[in-house]
Each structure stands twice: as structure tokens, then as C-alpha cells.
Amino acid sequence: MIKDDLERINKRGPNDLEENIDQLKKQVEFLQRKCRQAGEAILDLELQKKNLSKELDRLAEENSNLMTMMGKDNGKK
Length: 77
Fold this sequence. Notes:
Elements: H1 3-12, H2 17-70, H3 72-75
């Protein structure tokens, strides 16, 4: 802590309501930023999930088509 902080604490005291309000406001702002970041991460993951699901469906169809072309006996080796 710097000298100004110590003087401010000494003037107000450790249980000053204004100090508590300031700290709580800073905490709210910090938590809001973190919630926004988490929301962005969730949206990104949902988009990735959707894209991977489409890719999985495409590959399953491609595999099914390949097995059909090869015949059932050749595909089970």
C-alpha cells in the first residue's frame, strides 16, 4: 500500500461504509467482466459443438457410403 492509502484508511477507519461500498462496487465490476468473458466462451463452445456435430454427421455418412460401395463382406475384414 502507498502512503495515500494508509492515510485514507486512518481517516475513515477500517469499517467505513464508504470504503466498503467502493470495494463492493469494484468487486461487482470485476465479476461482471468475468461473467461476460464466460458468456463469450460459452457461445464459442456452442458454435464449436455445432460445427463438430455437423462434421461427425458428414463423416458417418461418408463412412456408410464407403461401406456400401465396398460391399458388406469387404467392410468387415
